[in-house]
Structures
1.
Amino acid sequence: MADQKDSEIRPAEAIAKESDKKLKKALSLQDLFFLSMGGIIGSGWLLGVAGAAGTAGPASILSWIIGGVIVLFIALTFAEISGAIPKSGAIVRYPHLAYGGYTGYIIGWAYMLSAVTVPTVEAEAEIHHSNAYIYLSAFHVQ
């Protein structure tokens, strides 16, 4: 470590500014549409509707409408911020700029944890959901 010069050690913000200059638009409108639909639609809505309807009955539709409006506002907020600050790493960078480095760090790790764990949870949910229609002996839940 003592052999390294101080000029070789650069702050993260300087590295981020350089990487922002290298970005280019490579996704089409269709790519963005299907990428966002893949992020929105998961197996959670398949099982969430059944659980909510069992608990709240027909009033669960109202909770889905309220949740949809809240998600719409969050999406519009991110669209507005990304138009004002067109830089990479939005999910970490915007909280970092607004609330400080610690908040950006925590949100970054929370996002990574969700990205790692959600596919396995969705696979388990889909197996459980499909088990009602197709008998899978290896995954049968008694």
Note: The first helix runs from residue 12 to 21.
2.
Amino acid sequence: MPVLTEPPSMGDVLKYEVNPNYTREVITLLIGTRYPVGAVLGRITVNGKYKLATSGGTDGAQTASAVLLYPVDATLADATGIVVARGPSIVSRAGLAYDGTVDDSAKITTKLGQLAAVGIIARDGV
């Protein structure tokens, strides 16, 4: 019997939200990458678009402010995505995906703290 592998889904990331009408937003993702489910995003100040939250920079996206709920391919053009942008919300820490510059535990802890500031709490084992 063949083994089926299912890609990650919203249920792997989002574990609790008080009200989807309050916690979710439709956003524009910056061209240039495929964004996975659970991508930790930051908002670019000058244009309001989102990209993977980096560990440094000055464009505003260095501050994590949302988690992507569905995969989005923005390799060829800006694309629309749905995010959890505020809490109270709980996400699975294991389901989060980070920019390549967020490459050690201290940087991950910083991103989790930034998400917590907007009410998005990451938990282990949920």
Note: Strands lie at 14-17, 24-29, 33-35, 40-43, 50-52, 64-68, 72-74, 79-84, 89-92, 120-123.
3.
Amino acid sequence: MSAVEGTDSYDALAEDLRALRHAAGSPSFTEIAVRVGQVREARGTDPGRARPARTTVYDTFRAGRSRMDGALVADIAEALDAPDPRSWRDRCGRIQHALEESRLRPIATDDVDDEPTRDPTPDAEPGPVPAADPLPPAPADPAPA
């Protein structure tokens, strides 16, 4: 199994990026940012917008991320001479999709009580609902110029 096909988590992806960086001779994060800029310029990106900040590149290698920019990951992989940079972007997308799916799944619990919960407040008649403050009048439309 290749590094790109590893465990689907951003921490594992960052670890694989660190291994790719090491295999490429451990260039500095500034050098990686320069290379990413060159990759993007070769694709036609405006030179003034092609190079990411060094800290942005550094953060991509850091564990504990809750999201990653798949295009940047692919550009870093290409800048570090990975054989299939697009697979890195695709992996990022799969991880993000899995995270979104896990957030949407209801949490199953075994200790759910089937009895309805009783309101702990005493049985009292509800009081009157206070009237809402009237809305201020809408501003007049300005006269046509």
Note: DSSP finds six helices and no strands in the chain.
4.
Amino acid sequence: MVRRIFWMAVGAGTAVWAMNKANEAARKLTPDSLSGTAARGALHLGDAAKRFALDVKAGMAEREQELRADLGLDGTAVLDPPRRRLSAAPDAGERAISAAPGSPGAALPPSRRNTPQVIASKPRQLEQRRGSTPNRKDH
């Protein structure tokens, strides 16, 4: 007899627990509950977007301050701003910025392109390199 009463109490407790869970699930699926959940989610998303925007704004202000200090725009003149080093040094025959594709300079081989060294070589400079001295008075 005690066994029957025990199992009847266990069954009644299980039924009460199951009814509570079913009512809770039904409450969560009502239109008011769903709209409240969506509104809370939207508010949370808005807060996250606001925090992100504030972080970006702070980073921009910090970088602008660094640039102003490097360029001397904040009242302090910097003689030699810190430079970032490249991982590999460019070749002596190649320029850092090449000619645009389709331009006449792009068709020339690297040795024939107008590089700063070729432009600086004028006839007078070439004569001085050969050993002649056309500007001397005894000549």
Note: The chain has five helices and no strands.
